[in-house]
């Protein structure tokens, strides 16, 4: 998996599925990121074409201790508030993030880590959007990794109404970058035990 690398079990906010390490990291410094994990497996002999990169369709969320401090590493003493998809709090689906953005949440694209985060009041959510997913798909093709998988389809905007970009905007971002480029490999590969 290349998500849930950070979450509300920690006391500082961070992007849970980021591609690269970032300034401000408090836990897993330099290693809790997709690039490190995938490269580590490859360095230990796993064929790159068998390494599949996981893409979350949801956000990990926190309640900020100080709503004016929102950068990666900002203090947060508890999970985000309850969401429709998680009444206990701490996560929200992408379609919920779109609703929060329409209600005044402010989105920041983190170029260094390749991820997005949204702040609304004292609520902080780290997630992927269409832009960050496209960057990740280009990266995995350039590096020669085998493809991508998602968790979970129903967390994308399946109706197209929350984000206003048509049904499944995140899945479509993956598909638009990968297209059929991996079908040939899959048809011509063998699985060894």
From TrEMBL:
Alphabetized Pfam families for the sequence: Glyco_hydro_18
Keyword field contains Transmembrane helix: no
Family matches, as SMART domains: Glyco_18
Signal peptide: none
UniProt-recorded Gene Ontology molecular function terms: chitin binding; chitinase activity
GO annotations of cellular component type: extracellular region
GO BP of this protein: carbohydrate metabolic process; chitin catabolic process
Domain GH18: 1-181
Protein name: Glyco_18 domain-containing protein
Organism the protein comes from: Brugia pahangi (Filarial nematode worm)
Biological classification of the source: Eukaryota, Metazoa, Ecdysozoa, Nematoda, Chromadorea
